[in-house]
């Protein structure tokens, strides 16, 4: 059945029937607005839009996987402030001939990714549109801590990364060349493994700045560099390129470091810490903050590829 | 200059430069997420999407006016819970050839409508898309009051309306027939005058249920009727059809009550109150809650037109 034959309110009923609340959900879908607990008297909030053909393709990802990715992109932003996500709101613009099951499975993916952090889908809106578009807003709580911003990095700080990097970009390249394997890379693109825990952990460790890598490590570190008025140097040898990625890069004629340094979609968190901060093995030290400006790799500009995504290019 | 030549980050810089914060804005645009005060430890949240050709037309409304309408649709939902809006997040999907000025003026309209309630645009996202789409999320605060839901209407309650009704629908019909006047109606469509004050006021008066009329009075009262398990009867004579609307209806061959009873976009608030609630002249009593089910006009089904909008029809 198409979403048009289900009708706006039929579709809403089918989708919301698949959603469960979280302890922070004081009032879920079905009213003019939702009500969500904001325990520390402040709420973290961010929005990301995903447009078919630009952020996802239905022949590359299942509806469940698109739901995971759409949720992850937003939940990672909450983590990157040092917060724990509480709720998601979803605006779905859909062609009238979309199968209702696709919308239902999208909701399943969104809800499942939310469950990883104890959040829930609490509301949304549905409209017809010629272009399948998913607009997600995430809310979160800082647990009384100050937000970890982009503008606090200091010369001398360590730069450290939590989570996988380059996998999703590699998987995206693999898919774009018409292949379906290596599976580890394709799966990484389809369902990112975001280190949500690392956001509040970094805040507790005294991180001076933090950002989630969604558009490419060097580009996103560029935001930190500009906001903080510092230079950041990344050590290329800090990254171990796994065998699957090395083999795929070789087969496709790509430098795997373009995936690691300029690829998006894995949503690892990168943070700066005062020197001497005791970081356990979950954090990979990848560089250092210096006086000056700009982001370099081993002290030099990285010219092998664009630094990351511009969503109009 | 097109948004594509400005680039994603250039466009973001231009748009955010036009935005001011509100007292509740603890951290505005420019980081992974915004931070907004949630004084009572809870946050009201809702999302509405507007798709070009379906919710707005660039030849019918200026960018500033589209901004006002997009903000109003969401801010009204916060008011309908009894809340005061604090913040807006905006996801903009835009064709690459859109003039940067259009996006800037959209931001001006969004910001100006926010200012009416003391809220601010605190964040968002921008992406290219073949279809101009605006996804807005509003946040708000209940000031310690319980939310006014749709499911609390009781037999015997009064049904009362705050704000104009039918004007915007009339203006939309006027524009759809190729006319540009009467100006009062066209302006009502282009820039709704939402009675935001009435939301918290109704909550303070003990409203048992409330909804904002965005899809048509009878359809939206239908949501209240179903959620509350009651019947609602509306008195046709309660509404005074103003001269401009009567004249336009006559010229266009339309029953003006289809605008009043089934038209959307004005975003008045309709609430139910226990009998005897002292309502001042800002509230128009338009009917009563009975035992039973369904929404009637003068005790009979309203068959002159669809009850309101289905966004897939």
UniProtKB/TrEMBL annotation, chains A, B:
Quick one: which residues bind Mg(2+) 2? 48, 77
List the transmembrane segments: none
Domain of life of the organism encoding this protein:
Bacteria
The GO molecular function terms of this record are: kinase activity
Cite the PurM-like N-terminal domain residue spans from the record: 30-140
Record-linked InterPro entries: PurM-like_C_sf, PurM-like_N, PurM-like_N_sf, ThiL-like
Q: What is its EC number?
A: 2.7.4.16
Q: What class of enzyme is it?
A: transferase
- An example Pfam family from this entry, by short name, is AIRS
Coiled coil region boundaries: none
The UniProt catalytic activity note for this protein reads:
thiamine phosphate + ATP = thiamine diphosphate + ADP
Binding residues for Mg(2+) 5, per the UniProt record?
Answer: 215
Q: Indicate yes or no for the key word ATP-binding.
A: yes
Where does this protein hold substrate?
55, 265, 309
At which positions is ATP bound?
A: 124-125, 150, 214
The miscellaneous comment for this protein is: Reaction mechanism of ThiL seems to utilize a direct, inline transfer of the gamma-phosphate of ATP to TMP rather than a phosphorylated enzyme intermediate.
What function does the entry list?
Catalyzes the ATP-dependent phosphorylation of thiamine-monophosphate (TMP) to form thiamine-pyrophosphate (TPP), the active form of vitamin B1.
User: NCBIfam families from the xrefs?
Assistant: PRK05731.1-4, thiL
Q: What is this protein called?
A: Thiamine-monophosphate kinase
Q: Which organism is it from?
A: Luedemannella flava
Taxon lineage: Bacteria, Bacillati, Actinomycetota, Actinomycetes, Micromonosporales
């Amino acid at each position: 059945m198409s979403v048009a034959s289900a009708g706006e309110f039929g579709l809403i009923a089918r989708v919301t029937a698949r959603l469960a609340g979280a302890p922070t959900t004081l009032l879920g879908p079905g009213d003019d607005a939702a009500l969500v607990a904001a325990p520390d008297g402040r709420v973290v909030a961010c929005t990301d839009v995903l447009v078919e053909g630009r952020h996802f393709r239905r022949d590359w990802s299942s509806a469940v996987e698109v739901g995971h990715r759409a949720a992850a992109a937003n939940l990672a932003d909450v983590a990157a402030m040092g917060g724990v996500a509480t709720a998601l709101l979803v605006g779905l613009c859909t062609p009238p001939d979309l199968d209702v099951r696709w919308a239902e499975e999208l909701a399943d993916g969104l809800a499942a990714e939310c469950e990883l952090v104890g959040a829930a889908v609490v509301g949304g809106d549905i409209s017809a549109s010629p272009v399948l578009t998913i607009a997600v807003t995430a809310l979160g709580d800082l647990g009384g801590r100050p937000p970890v911003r982009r503008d606090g990095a200091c010369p001398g700080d360590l730069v450290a990364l939590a989570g996988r990097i380059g996998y999703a970009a590699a998987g995206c390249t693999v898919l774009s060349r018409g292949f379906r394997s290596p599976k580890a890379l394709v799966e990484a693109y389809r369902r990112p493994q975001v280190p949500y825990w690392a956001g509040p952990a970094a805040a507790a460790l005294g991180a001076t700045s933090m950002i989630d890598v969604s558009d490419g490590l060097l580009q996103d570190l560029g935001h930190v560099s500009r906001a903080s008025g510092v230079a950041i140097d990344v050590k290329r040898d800090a990254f171990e390129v796994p065998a699957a990625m090395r083999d795929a890069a070789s087969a496709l004629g790509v430098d795997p470091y373009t995936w690691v340094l300029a690829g998006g979609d894995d949503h690892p968190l990168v943070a700066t810490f005062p020197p001497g901060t005791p970081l356990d093995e979950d954090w990979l030290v990848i560089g250092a903050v210096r006086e000056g400006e700009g982001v370099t790799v081993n002290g030099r500009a990285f010219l092998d590829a664009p630094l990351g995504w511009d969503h109009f290019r």
